[in-house]
């Protein structure tokens, strides 16, 4: 991600959304499965094999989706690169409940191969889905995911084909994703002098460590890695690793030691747990991460559009166990 300026269908319960919001607010962080999964995997395999069998590079994509305020019916993806063209889809958190089809709450128009910025995505109007909700009415996390146009008809058919066409772009054999918090209405006023950004990609855990590719912290601080319990409102319990103190400025290849990779909370889909890195400030200037021990009174997160700055990636090889 770069500095951030600037869900929900009937599939994920309102109680889950409220749990996220309650947990974040309380800590200052808020100012048909197996058959479908198999079809998705087969479609991804075809996507990767297209071209590579002829000696061409495999398709690739990147995406940047930052926190934002919205009118409730659209979101804007900051930027995306699609090597072979395709679409950007928006998912709610039911994606992690092995619902790659039912979690789709928005899809962009067809995008040509190449780089695109400020991609508008209409919410709650998805081919093949009937969604009761018409607009976002409270803050929520959403997941942006680029999809290929596997049959070259410039029509998004991932849902209508039950995952047999137009599968996700992948990196490290896992879907390319980004996470952002979306809030209805106008963005709250904030201290624009403080800003942070992250870039975290799918990867394997190596020696109990993950690597955040790029970090920018205007006032220094830490990178904190959360597991999926963050989405259940468990802001403290979800912390699974914290970086060393980082000086103000830009940093690359920031290593985060995980406390216990085998204890990272798993999800039903995809077959690797998500990690959510989040930059935190050093509010008391002691270069020690005190957010958890102070119950959120010190070292709060950097925020954008009134929500914590976050990224999302999937990690493999962690021997994770569900919880």
UniProtKB/TrEMBL annotation:
Domain of life where this protein originates: Archaea
Pfam families the UniProt entry points to: DUF7282 (PF23951)
Compositional bias of kind Polar residues: 284-297
Region (Disordered): 281-303
Coiled coil: none
Residue ranges annotated for the DUF7282 domain, each copy included: 61-178, 196-311
Signal peptide: none
Protein name stated in the entry: DUF7282 domain-containing protein
């Amino acid at each position: 991600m770069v500095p951030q300026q600037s869900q929900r269908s009937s599939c994920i319960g309102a109680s889950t959304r409220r749990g996220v919001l309650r947990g974040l607010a309380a800590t200052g962080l808020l100012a048909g499965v197996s058959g479908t999964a198999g079809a998705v995997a087969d479609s991804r395999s075809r996507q990767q094999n297209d071209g590579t069998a002829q000696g061409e590079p495999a398709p690739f994509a990147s995406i940047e989706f930052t926190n934002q305020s919205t009118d409730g019916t659209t979101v804007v993806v900051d930027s995306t690169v699609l090597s072979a063209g395709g679409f950007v889809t928006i998912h709610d958190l039911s994606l992690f409940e092995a619902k790659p089809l039912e979690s789709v709450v928005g899809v962009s128009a067809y995008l040509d191969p190449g780089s695109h910025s400020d991609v508008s995505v209409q919410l709650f109007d998805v081919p093949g889905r009937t969604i009761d909700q018409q607009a976002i009415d409270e803050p929520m996390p959403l997941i942006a995911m680029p999809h290929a146009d596997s049959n070259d008809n410039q029509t998004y058919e991932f849902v209508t084909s039950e995952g047999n066409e137009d599968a996700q772009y992948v990196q490290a054999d896992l879907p390319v994703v980004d996470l952002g918090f979306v809030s209805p209405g106008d963005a709250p006023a904030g201290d624009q002098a403080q800003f942070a950004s992250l870039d975290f990609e799918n990867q394997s855990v190596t020696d109990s460590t993950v690597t955040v590719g790029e970090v920018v912290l205007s006032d220094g601080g830490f990178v904190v890695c959360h597991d999926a319990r963050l989405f259940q409102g468990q802001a403290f319990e979800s912390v699974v690793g914290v970086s060393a103190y980082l000086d103000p400025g830009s940093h690359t290849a920031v290593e985060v030691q995980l406390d216990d990779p085998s204890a990272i909370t798993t999800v039903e889909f995809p077959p690797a747990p998500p990690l959510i890195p989040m930059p935190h400030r050093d509010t008391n200037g002691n270069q020690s991460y005190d957010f958890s021990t102070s119950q959120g009174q010190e070292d709060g997160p950097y925020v954008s559009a009134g929500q914590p700055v976050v990224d999302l990636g999937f990690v493999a090889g962690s021997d994770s166990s569900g919880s």
